[in-house]
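hey can u check if this looks right to u? its 358 residues, i copy pasted from the old doc so theres a chance i mangled smth
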Amino acid sequence: MRAAVLHETGQDKLEVLDDVEAVGFGPGKVRVRVQATGLCHSDLSAMSGVLPQPAPFVPGHEGAGEILDVGEGVRGLRPGDRVVLCWLPACGACPACRRGQTELCLAGFMNAGTPNFRRPGGDVFGFAGTGTFAEEVVVDAGCAVPIPDDVPFDIAALIGCGVTTGLGAALNTADLQAGSSVAVIGCGGVGVSAIQGARLKGAAEIVAVDPVAARREAALRFGATRAVAPDRLADAKQQITAGEGFDYVFEVVGRSATARTAYESTRRGGTLVIVGAGAMDDVLQLTMFELFFDEKRILPSLYGGGDVLRSYERAIALWRADRIDLAGLITHRVPLSEINEALDHMRTGSALRTCIEI
């Protein structure tokens, strides 16, 4: 079958090969025919080494498709079922799951260390235990979440990561108050989803911050009340909050420099939500005095900061009710053979989300 493979960490191009085999099928597993997958910035981060991932590997973790086969012991799934792929499934039994913090379950991370593809030259991993830049993938049954028949595969794929992450940051992690002031730094697919979440919660002012003009324009269509380049954020802070700072600031870039800017843009007693996935050696520096004196809440948000399955259901319900725009997030569509062009769109910021049609 065909799949896009990164041979070595640090390479910036993928090679689309037709000699890749999805492996590992057996008890508790399902085989999925991938129909659509989104390109997320985390895929680029894994390719560059910012996010740890063994190589060679097939990127992609934001996918949807159809069940081809189910292994022994699998319940509730059968061939033909339409599913969204969850890269962070909950085991239901660990301490985090028992506390109700299923997004902190480590079972899904353990999958990333097990090869789920093979080529004649040896094993190939799937990014985050999935690897959706492939025609087929074998995953744990818990990674395959059934979706209703009226949800298109491309919409479902976005819900599998970016939409759930951005919406959840606003709805779950921040639980922001109506009438509040908000700034969102980084307005790709996840940032725009956070903007939509802030709009749903009734934020009075939502400032989108991004260096790319096309993304700023898009953010206004999705609910931002103002869109500025990073060098104009201080002006917006002065004009909207009289210099006090925003009630809520979302950092959706994953860099210490922008996190520091986000902290300084948050009012005393306000909330900074860290959404971007950054590098392990990128250190954010804060003084003990400012932590004490400013009393700002710093809230990391992993995968939307809430129960993933409920978040999927909520996103589908909001999409059905036309309360959120998911189709508008897809600015580019390309076949798997043009995956490197899609990577370029992501790097330049010209795409919110690119749908890879497998």
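The longest helix spans residues 162-174.
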